[in-house]
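Worked example 3 (structure in, sequence out).
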């Protein structure tokens, strides 16, 4: 079952198209268009994803949240297992909320409250699991704390969250990914270019970040991506 919120989002995307204006004729030469390189894709195993699905194995009718935006592959995979999925384009909402004032405005209580209403406005204990992916690296401390607190409220006790963090804390920019589920232990990863993280984490700082949860478990991949399973 696809959530009503997701259906509404799709309707909005279909209705938002606009006609491209015709260019006036003239003798000026056309400005060359620089072609963007095609996105880099790869398929790799994911111990964190395997651990996440091990928790829900044998269950049906669960409600999951995907913060990576709506992808048909993830929707189909989750619903084929007999579960419901809600999708939120967390990074797009983040950009739209804080694009004017810049990252430093992430400490503004009013903007934080607005962002939480846009991205994570759900009842308490509504979800049985969250696919957080790599979105938390782009949050300043005040916003990050508020987001983690909200996640703890909207996820049921004993459920799991899966989050990714880059393990190289010297990087000034990190690859931004789209994650599509191939199998319970396999991901199709597409790079969407580089994005500047607000902060990078090591194991100790992640344990502190999720200190209010029952447990935190780490898996380090060959591409220096730290997969983190958080038990609520």
């Amino acid at each position: 079952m696809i959530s009503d919120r997701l259906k509404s989002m799709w309707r909005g995307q279909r209705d938002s198209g606009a006609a491209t204006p015709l260019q006036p004729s003239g003798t000026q030469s056309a400005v060359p268009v620089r072609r963007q390189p095609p996105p880099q894709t790869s398929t790799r195993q994911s111990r964190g994803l395997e651990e996440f699905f091990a928790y829900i194995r044998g269950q049906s009718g669960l409600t999951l949240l995907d913060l990576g935006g709506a992808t048909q592959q993830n929707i189909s995979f989750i619903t084929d297992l007999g579960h419901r999925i809600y999708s939120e384009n967390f990074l797009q909402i983040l950009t739209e909320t804080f694009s004017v004032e810049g990252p430093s405005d992430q400490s503004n209580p009013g903007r934080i409250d607005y962002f939480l209403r846009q991205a994570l406005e759900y009842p308490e204990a509504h979800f049985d699991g969250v696919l957080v992916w790599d979105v938390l690296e782009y949050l300043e401390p005040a916003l990050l704390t508020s987001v983690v607190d909200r996640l703890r409220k909207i996820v049921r006790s004993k459920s799991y969250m899966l989050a990714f963090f880059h393990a190289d804390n010297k990087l000034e920019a990190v690859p931004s990914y789209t994650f599509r589920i191939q199998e319970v232990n396999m991901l199709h990863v597409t790079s969407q270019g580089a994005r500047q993280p607000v902060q990078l984490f090591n194991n100790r700082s992640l344990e502190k970040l999720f200190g209010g949860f029952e447990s935190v478990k780490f898996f380090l991949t060959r591409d220096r991506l730290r997969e983190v399973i958080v038990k609520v």
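Notes: The chain has one domain: 38-231. The chain is about 30% helix and 30% strand.
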